[in-house]
Specification:
disordered N terminus, globular
């Protein structure tokens, strides 16, 4: 069937959920995300006055860059666990820091900076971004640029920085999905926002039912060959789509490094076939939303706190939380017996399969980040614990 005749599909049309579990909405942007991005960046461009000395030679010379004040912990690599991404030479930390929600202008800059610097101190060397993260879209990458300039720039070679393109970023037919024009233009914009010459991983953020996979993967291949990305990745692809993408990239001479799907105790769809495909093809797997949008924490055990994500997020509803709550409470009891919080057990569970290279965690505070990293200190799951967890989720 010709691609033009295929109906548009959402992410949830391309993946299934095993074990009867209730899926968690993917990290898609709202339908009007490109409007948010356009307004945000138009406002920045419209600020009065010249922006640089080059635009107005009368401006004084810019101040010299200040010396970085951040000195990383010397033992930062001793406690973190690292796993190889598939059959590649790349090692990623078991926990990676995601920039999806907490790195826009609504969060104080010093808090953003503190979270990222503390993550590096804890051995978290992988920073996971996308063009549409913030909010608003684009602002998370700008936040990282400032943190690199003030603190982490001297340690760029110790970092794996990734970004993605695939969701709506600007109006018109060229600002969304997986065309070559959109993918490569978006990468150029991301590099400018972050102040980088290259990213370590550039992802196709979602499959595009209207664009040949050869075109989208060709864009990733071009990004690698141009030196704008070191590796190619995909996200939100089902097992059949992932296999096609892997095959196309291999024919082009660029190996797929990693796939980023959603995965948690409440969203186990990758166990059906995707993990097998990735293992067979030597591709790594980094999972997002391992805490199911905060459901697998203590946040909702005693009701819905004011201002929590469920009160304003398009990706999580109170009905979903209520429907899952009996299982969440039962899982919390198992976690308590293990001496862990529910969040710590959920992260350890997501990493129990060695085919999972890393789990992306967000953090709204340094304390939350530190608590998540302590998930790696727990004892391995005993068979009876895994059976009890499966019984809760049945």
């Amino acid at each position: 069937m010709a691609h033009a005749a295929e109906p548009a599909r959402s992410h949830l049309d391309t993946v299934g959920h095993s074990n009867g579990s209730i899926g968690v909405a993917p990290e898609t942007a709202p339908a009007d995300a490109w409007k948010q991005a356009s307004l945000y960046h138009a406002e920045r461009q419209a600020r009065p006055g010249p922006r640089t000395q080059e635009e107005d030679p009368k401006l004084p010379d810019p101040k010299p860059a200040r010396e970085p004040t951040f000195v990383p912990a010397p033992g930062r690599y001793e406690a973190m666990q690292y796993r190889r991404s598939g059959a590649s030479g790349v090692m990623l930390p078991a926990l990676s820091l995601g920039f999806w929600h907490n790195f826009g202008p609504a969060v104080p800059p010093e808090r953003r900076r503190a979270i990222v610097c503390r993550a590096f101190d804890l051995g978290i060397t992988h920073l996971d971004l996308a063009n549409n993260y913030g909010p608003p879209p684009g602002s998370a990458e700008e936040s990282l640029a400032r943190i690199l300039e003030s603190d982490l720039g001297p340690y760029r070679d110790e970092l794996v920085i990734s970004t993605k393109a695939g969701y709506g970023m600007w109006p018109g037919p060229y600002g969304d999905f997986g065309s070559r024009k959109y993918m490569l233009a978006s990468l150029d914009q991301s590099l400018r926002r972050m102040g980088l010459d290259y990213v370590d991983i550039f992802y196709s953020h979602r499959p595009d039912p209207a664009t040949p996979v050869e075109e989208t993967m060709g864009a990733l291949d071009s990004a690698v060959r141009q030196g704008k990305a070191l590796y190619a990745g995909i996200s939100n692809y089902g097992p059949v789509e992932a296999k096609r993408a892997i095959d196309v990239l291999r024919r082009l001479g660029t190996l797929l490094l990693i796939h980023q799907p959603s995965y948690s105790m409440l969203n186990r769809w990758i166990e059906g076939r995707l993990l097998d495909v990735l293992a067979e093809e030597g591709v790594g797997c980094i999972v997002f939303s391992p805490l199911a949008q905060g459901q697998l924490t203590d946040r909702y055990l005693n009701g819905t706190p004011a201002g929590s994500r469920v009160t304003h997020s398009p990706f999580l509803t109170e009905d979903t939380v209520a429907r899952n709550m009996p299982r969440i409470r039962a899982l919390n009891e198992i976690a308590a017996r293990r001496g862990q919080t529910l969040a710590q057990m959920a992260l350890a569970w997501a990493l129990r399969d060695q085919r999972v290279t890393s789990a992306v965690v967000g953090a709204s505070s340094v304390e939350q980040l530190e608590a998540n990293v302590r998930a790696l200190e727990g004892a391995p799951f005993a068979p009876d614990e895994l059976a009890a967890i499966d019984a809760c989720l049945a």
